[in-house]
TrEMBL record, chain A:
Keyword NADP: no
Compartments, as annotated in UniProt: Periplasm
Source organism of this protein record: Mangrovicoccus algicola
Stretch forming the signal peptide: 1-20
Predominant subcellular localization, coarse grouping: periplasm
GO cellular component, one term: periplasmic space
InterPro entries: SBP, Sperm_putr-bd
UniProt keyword terms in alphabetical order: Periplasm, Signal, Transport
Known role: Required for the activity of the bacterial periplasmic transport system of putrescine.
Keyword Transport: yes
Record protein name field: Putrescine-binding periplasmic protein
Any one GO molecular-function label of the UniProt entry: polyamine binding
UniProtKB/TrEMBL annotation, chain B:
Subcellular location per the Swiss-Prot or TrEMBL entry: Cell membrane
PROSITE patterns in UniProt: ABC_TM1 (PS50928)
UniProt organism field: Mangrovicoccus algicola
Primary subcellular site in the record, as a coarse category: membrane
Statement: the UniProt record of this protein carries the keyword Transmembrane: yes
Highest taxon above the source species: Bacteria
ABC transmembrane type-1 domain location: 80-286
Name recorded for this polypeptide: ABC transporter permease subunit
Family annotation (InterPro entries): MetI-like, MetI-like_sf
Keywords assigned: Cell membrane, Membrane, Transmembrane, Transmembrane helix, Transport
UniProtKB/TrEMBL annotation, chain C:
Annotated source species: Mangrovicoccus algicola
Similarity comment text for this entry: Belongs to the ABC transporter superfamily. Spermidine/putrescine importer (TC 3.A.1.11.1) family.
Function as written in the Swiss-Prot or TrEMBL entry: Part of the ABC transporter complex PotABCD involved in spermidine/putrescine import. Responsible for energy coupling to the transport system.
Quaternary structure annotation from Swiss-Prot or TrEMBL: The complex is composed of two ATP-binding proteins (PotA), two transmembrane proteins (PotB and PotC) and a solute-binding protein (PotD).
Protein name (record): Spermidine/putrescine import ATP-binding protein PotA
Gene3D superfamilies attached to this UniProt entry: 2.40.50.100, P-loop containing nucleotide triphosphate hydrolases (3.40.50.300)
GO biological process, one term: putrescine transport
């Protein structure tokens, strides 16, 4: 679930799926989500031609897949989206006989992705991460004091805290499927609840903090956090780490930390899968197998600062990746992470409507 | 009727049929369907292989449920109203900004006019999306506008314009300004200069001559320009998404959410059909205005 | 025969005591380097129908626009009714203009066009209605009052423009090529209508035209202009019969001009124009001439008699060859090359149906004219 920059950009400028030709593999992945030298390496090793397109929103990918005939051989939806796409019959089952590198996959991740893809029959994990709190330490402590709850959802769900934070700026992801489970968790409910009445309980909580949210946006917080424009972002781990690095590079005195909330954090998975109507499924399998090579997978993670679902790759990871608890959480924290599943259409409608109300007040 | 004439007359109708009626009927059909977890994500789909029974089943599966749904949640009519308000205000602002430009162009020396016209059209050579994106750089709190205002001492703290309604208006006015200027310019340009002299000769000051003669004579251009701005503004999605804040309620965004977030193609189609019906009214008025001035 | 005495001729310009309505005093108008009007002096009297005649670019339109207030003189003063009008804007002048293009407001009906100025003047509804209806009657437009300008004919539009400019009852009405857009037949009818209306309303009319026939027909006095100057200001008859320069003679009507010099000077003058030819005998008309001076002898074609032999009663007779004939129905114009080389035009009325056939191309003919027929011009 990489940053959803501006989905409409993809709608308007989005790549058109090319027609497949013999020996060509069409891959559709998130933007800025791979070490690009891997692409040349793949072509070299397999002799296949690789056409690599990028998207920046799950919704866009899903619409292409549901319309049918996308022309792609490999796509990378997020778990919750994958789940309902499997139900719609979008993907073909993987032939693990042709995926010898699948033995490198990490059980810890496989256990969890099974929730979206029973038996892991249709997909393999590419990257995963958590949703949590990015904090500008100095500013938050200035407003809330030394004991500011920077590792707790209290920070963003307690109106009295938010009221103070509003002065230095707070961004929330513009993604109800991320924020509402967190609110449910905070209220002591099941974050994966699909009961509209239970989901409805979050309305009062969200409305109470809404006036203090500077903005609901799914990508702007990276820069805003890095240049000190805001002091708190409720966002994706990799993006906040990216903000941390940008601030460090700029040497502007801004110090960013990421924390998965101690109440529990949402864990998400971007899964590689092959559309049922893929023009070149053999080539797609070759690409999947290539990516699951421990060294290749490690190269990708070292480049994008996201954890992957490949156990064997871990020995090749850089220390600032494998050693960072914000990327690879401790065993203990890992136990505290939760996952959510896709909403049924009727429930999804309730969630979207609730979110519109939270954002616009209507 | 000779065959050539027939072809000539048939061509625009074929065009209309292929590019408007067929897509509209497809959208209308989807709006009468139900969502489904399938490809495509709605049912029923047209299946000729099942013969008559299939066709009967197909039509039996259509209903107005989605349109009824639109009346049940106040989000929709509030969005339509809000869109209309934003479009109307933006159209008025565009008129205020565009009229003086068109007027100045029509009063410029004839040898300058093609150049001025070129300058108005020039922005169209770049993508509208990129031009709207560029406004982020201008309007954001550390953007050029704020830098300029801070530097000149007009303000002490940066204005937050980006992600507000104001930014949406700026975006719409900027994007659609040429659509306002060109028709007004066309109506002013063909105006006989001696009409103003005649008005002055008959007792008007320069200002009353403008209101009594120039303005009424440019009315067809004003009306055309207003329609050309209002109609696309009403369904505008790009500008509020890029420049507007989360509180900017527009039907284009609602439609996007129905389509992408809710994956509810039928309701999204119903929203689109209603939007089209709302637009048909000003389009018909526009058409009648054009005919009257033809 | 005459049962009543002829009215005193209207000629205020001959009356030293008459007060002019308009007085141009040393008026010059320059546009950048171009001098449109140069040091012009002119008086126009109340109730006159005054024509400014000249080719395009002669400054006649500029003169009119200065009267209307759309241009201001670079130098000099224009007096209107004893008031310097330079500082008065067009909308405050008791002057109205009928535009060449008519400049009817296309968005207003005929009625509203005529009422336009009255409403701006703040007249009450009843006054406006009465005045508009009066104007409609005057210009015979009653049944077109509700039409828009594009729904009526060119002649009707011309009358609307006239009615509109007269509605305010101006002291001075300016007409810029008022009949230029009409076809010839309609133009002739309209000329008389214009004169009629001018007479009825008693308004002073200043008309700008390049059509000499039109100027001659309608005007009490004509000013012939060239290159920003007045060449001659006089009644149409004087302009025609006694032009004061080659330019005026040439501009107004047809004329043949023979270059020569004064051979003998008495009560009559003799103009020698060619070696061995008999000099032209003519009255001098009071022009100051000196013997030996180079002059131009101008004679109008209708003053020349064409015959197979010299006319016994005419003092001047020369022989020549017909090189061209213009048959116009009522008259025929003969272009005759004299044996001395000059070209002379002569006009003959086709009084008999076959008279025109009497002379044809290359015929030898005699041209005869009297001592009063032509004028001697020094320039």
């Amino acid at each position: 679930m990489k940053k959803a920059m501006l989905p409409l950009a993809a709608v308007l400028l989005g790549g058109t799926a090319a027609m497949a030709t013999e020996g060509t593999v069409h891959v559709y992945n998130w933007s800025d989500y791979i070490d690009e030298s891997l692409l040349a390496k793949f072509e070299e090793e397999t002799g296949l031609e690789l056409v690599y397109d990028v998207f920046d929103s799950n919704e866009l990918l899903e619409t292409k897949l549901l319309a049918g005939g996308s022309g792609y051989d490999v796509v990378v939806p997020t778990g919750t989206f994958l789940e309902r796409q499997i139900q719609a019959g979008v993907f073909r089952e993987l032939d693990f006989g042709q995926l010898p590198n699948s033995e490198n996959l990490w059980d810890v991740v496989k256990e969890r992705t099974e929730k979206y893809d029973p038996g892991n029959a249709y997909s393999v994990n590419y990257m995963w991460g958590t949703t949590g709190l990015g904090v500008n330490m100095a500013k938050v402590q200035e407003v809330l004091g030394e004991d500011a709850p920077i590792d707790s959802l209290d920070l963003v769900f307690k109106p009295e805290k938010m009221e103070k934070l509003a002065s230095c700026g707070v961004h929330f992801l513009d993604a109800p499927t991320e924020i509402i489970p967190a609110a449910l968790r905070y209220l002591g409910e099941d974050p994966d609840s699909h009961d509209p009445d239970v989901i409805g309980k979050t309305e009062d909580l969200l409305m109470s903090v809404r006036p203090y949210v500077t903005k609901f946006h799914s990508s702007e917080y990276i820069n805003a956090l890095a240049n000190g424009e805001i002091c708190v972002a409720f966002g994706w781990s990799g993006d906040i780490l990216q903000a941390r690095d940008r601030a460090a590079e700029a040497d502007n005195g801004v110090e960013i930390t990421y924390n998965a909330p101690k109440e529990g954090a949402l864990m998400w998975f971007d899964q590689m899968a092959i559309p049922a109507d893929a023009p070149n499924p053999e080539g797609a399998l070759a690409f999947l197998n290539f990516i699951m090579d421990p060294q290749n997978m490690a190269a990708a993670s070292n480049y994008v600062y996201y954890a992957n679902g490949n156990k064997a790759s871990q020995e090749f990871l850089n220390e600032d990746v494998i050693g960072d608890p914000a990327i690879y959480p401790s065993e203990e924290t890992l136990e505290n992470l939760y996952t959510v599943t896709a909403y049924e259409p009727k429930v999804q409608r309730v969630v979207t409507r609730l979110w519109t109300k939270v954002k616009s007040g209507t | 009727m000779n065959p050539r004439r027939l072809v000539l007359i048939a061509a625009p109708y074929a065009w209309l049929l292929a590019l408007f009626m067929v897509p509209f009927l497809i959208v209308l059909k989807i709006s009468l369907s139900d969502t489904a977890v399938a490809i495509p994500p709605y049912a029923p789909t047209f299946d000729l292989s099942a013969g008559w029974a299939g066709i009967r089943e197909f039509f039996g599966g259509l209903d107005f449920e989605n349109f009824i749904w639109l009346t049940e949640d106040d989000l929709y009519w509030k969005s339509y109203l809000s869109s209309m308000k934003i479009a109307a205000v933006a159209t008025f602002l565009t008129l205020l900004a565009g009229y003086p430009v068109a007027y100045a162009m029509s009063r410029a020396k004839p040898e300058w006019r093609p150049t001025l016209m070129m300058l108005i059209i020039l922005p169209f050579w770049s993508s509208a999306l990129i031009r709207v994106y560029a406004w982020i750089g201008i309007l954001q709190s550390e953007g050029y506008l704020n830098q300029l205002l801070l530097w000149s001492g007009v303000i002490d703290t940066p204005l937050s314009i980006l992600n507000t309604q104001v930014a949406v208006y700026i975006g719409i006015v900027y994007t659609y300004l040429p659509f306002m200027i060109l028709p007004i310019y066309a109506s002013l340009e063909k105006m006989d200069e001696s009409l103003l002299e005649a008005a002055e000769d008959l007792g008007c000051t320069r200002i009353t001559a403008f209101w009594r003669v120039t303005f009424p004579l440019s009315k067809p251009g004003i009306i055309a320009g207003c329609f050309l701005v209002f109609i696309p503004s009403l369904g505008e999605f790009v500008i509020p998404s890029i420049l507007g804040g989360s509180q900017t309620l527009m039907i284009g965004k609602v439609l996007w959410e129905e389509f992408f977030s809710n994956r509810d193609w039928p309701v999204a189609s119903a929203v689109a059909v209603v939007l089209l019906l709302i637009l048909v009214i000003p389009i018909v008025l526009f058409q009648r205005n054009e005919e009257r001035n033809a | 025969m005459e049962s009543k005495p002829a009215p005193a001729p209207f000629a205020p310009w001959e009356d030293a005591a008459a007060h002019p309505l308009i007085r141009f005093e040393g008026v010059t108008k320059r546009f950048g380097d171009f001098t449109a009007v140069s040091d012009l002096n002119l008086k126009i009297y109340p109730r006159e129908f005054f024509a400014l005649l000249g080719p395009s670019g002669c400054g006649k339109t500029t003169l009119m626009r200065m009267l209307a207030g759309f241009e201001t003189p670079t130098e000099g003063t224009i007096w209107l009714d004893g008031q310097n009008i330079a500082p008065v804007p067009p909308n405050k002048r008791p002057v109205n203009m009928m535009f060449q293009s008519y400049a009817l407001f296309p968005h207003l009906s005929v009625w509203d066009n005529i009422a336009f100025g009255l409403r701006r003047a703040g007249k009450d509804k009843e006054t406006v209605r009465a005045r508009v209806e009066e104007m409609l009657r005057l210009t015979r437009l009653d049944q077109f009052a509700r039409r828009k300008p594009h729904q009526i004919s060119g002649g009707q539009r011309q009358r609307v423009a006239l009615a509109r400019s007269l509605a305010l009852g101006p002291k001075l009405l300016l007409l810029d090529e008022p009949l230029g857009a009409l076809d010839k037949k309609l133009r002739q009818d309209t000329q008389f209508e214009l004169m009629d209306i001018q007479e009825k309303t008693g308004t002073t009319f200043v008309i700008v035209t390049h059509d000499q026939e039109e100027a001659m027909t309608v005007a009490s006095r004509v000013a012939v202009m060239d290159a920003g100057r007045l060449c001659q200001v006089d009644t149409p008859q004087h302009i025609y019969e006694t032009p004061n320069s080659r330019y005026v003679a040439d501009f107004i009507g047809e004329v043949s001009i023979i270059e020569g010099r004064v051979a003998a000077l008495g009560e009559e003058a003799e103009i020698a124009y060619a070696e061995g030819a008999r000099p032209i005998v003519t009255r001098t008309g009071g022009a100051a001439l000196e013997p030996g001076q180079s002059v131009f002898y101008a004679i109008r074609p209708e003053k020349i008699w064409v015959g197979a032999a010299p006319h016994p009663d005419r003092i001047n007779s020369v022989e020549g060859t017909i090189v061209d004939i213009g048959y116009l129905g009522d008259v025929s114009t003969y272009h005759v090359r004299l044996d001395t080389g000059q070209m002379v035009k002569a006009l003959m009325t086709n009084a008999e149906r076959y008279a025109a056939s009497r002379f044809t191309w290359n015929d030898r003919v005699w041209l005869s004219w009297s001592r009063h027929a032509g004028v001697v011009l020094a320039s």
